[in-house]
Write a structure and sequence with these properties.
single chain; mainly beta; 6-stranded antiparallel β-barrel
Length: 220
C-alpha cells in the first residue's frame, strides 16, 4: 500500500529520546517515534472536494467513546474506530479507504519535517516565559525579584502598547521542526529514529513528512 504513495507522510507518537552511534563511532542523540501503522479513513480528490488529501487514523479507540457520525465514517471505510484522525494534504495516488500506511516508506538518510504540539507549561511569569532578569536584589527590594517592571508609559500614549511581553499562557502550541534527519528505521517494530529533538511530551502525537530522500552517489 505504501508503495503507491508519491509523498511519504505518517502519524506517530513520541516515545522518548535515546542515543545511537553512527558509522564513524560518533554518539548521536535521537528521538524514538512509534510511527503507524495508520489506516486510511477517507480519500479526498480535486474532482469531488476541490483538493487532494488523505484522512488517516492512528491507534485503536473504543466504540463507546466514539461519536455516532465518526462511527458511520469508520463503518463506511470498513474500519474499527481510531483515536487520532489527521487530514494530510498530499497526492492521493492509488490510495483508497481501508489501506494501511506503514513506516517502511521512510529510509535512513531521509530529510523530514515534523509537526507536533509543544509541552504545556500553564501560566508562567516573565522570567520563565521571556527570560527577563527580574528586579534588583538589594536597596530595599523584597518582593520584586521576578516582577516584569513597568509595562506602560506616562503622558503619551498613556496606555500599554499592544504586544508588550508579559506573563501568560506558555507552551501547548503547534510547532514545526524542519530538515530533521532520519537516523534509522525499524519496520518490524514500527519505529523511526529521528536525529535531535521533537516537540511535545512523551506519547505526544506528531506528523512526519518526507521532504527529500537520501542522497545517492551521483547526487551533489
Amino acid at each position: 500500500m505504501a508503495d503507491a504513495m508519491t509523498s511519504a507522510m505518517i502519524v506517530g507518537r513520541k516515545l522518548g529520546m535515546n542515543s545511537i552511534f553512527d558509522e564513524t563511532g560518533t554518539q548521536v542523540p535521537v528521538t524514538v517515534i512509534e510511527a503507524g501503522p495508520c489506516r486510511v479513513v477517507q480519500v479526498k480528490t480535486k474532482e469531488k472536494d476541490g483538493y487532494e488529501a488523505v484522512k488517516i487514523g492512528f491507534l485503536p479507540k473504543k466504540p463507546r467513546r466514539t461519536r455516532k457520525p465518526q462511527l458511520g465514517e469508520f463503518k463506511k471505510a470498513n474500519l474499527e474506530p481510531m483515536q487520532h484522525l489527521h487530514e494530510l494534504r498530499m497526492p492521493v495516488g492509488e490510495l483508497k479507504a481501508g489501506d494501511e500506511i506503514k513506516v517502511d516508506q521512510f529510509a535512513k538518510g531521509d530529510i523530514v519535517t515534523i509537526i507536533g504540539t509543544s509541552k504545556g507549561k500553564g501560566f508562567q511569569g516573565v522570567v520563565r516565559r521571556h527570560h527577563f532578569s527580574g528586579g534588583p536584589k538589594t536597596h530595599g527590594q523584597s518582593d520584586r525579584h521576578r516582577a516584569p517592571g513597568s509595562i506602560g508609559s506616562s503622558a503619551f500614549p498613556s496606555r500599554v502598547i499592544k504586544g508588550v511581553r508579559m506573563g501568560g499562557h506558555m507552551g501547548n502550541a503547534r510547532r514545526t521542526i524542519k530538515n530533521q534527519l532520519v537516523a534509522e528505521v525499524l519496520p518490524e517494530q514500527n519505529i523511526i529514529l529521528v536525529r535531535g529533538g521533537v516537540p511535545g511530551p512523551i506519547k505526544g502525537i506528531v506528523q512526519i513528512k518526507r521532504v527529500r530522500g537520501p542522497k545517492t552517489k551521483t547526487e551533489g
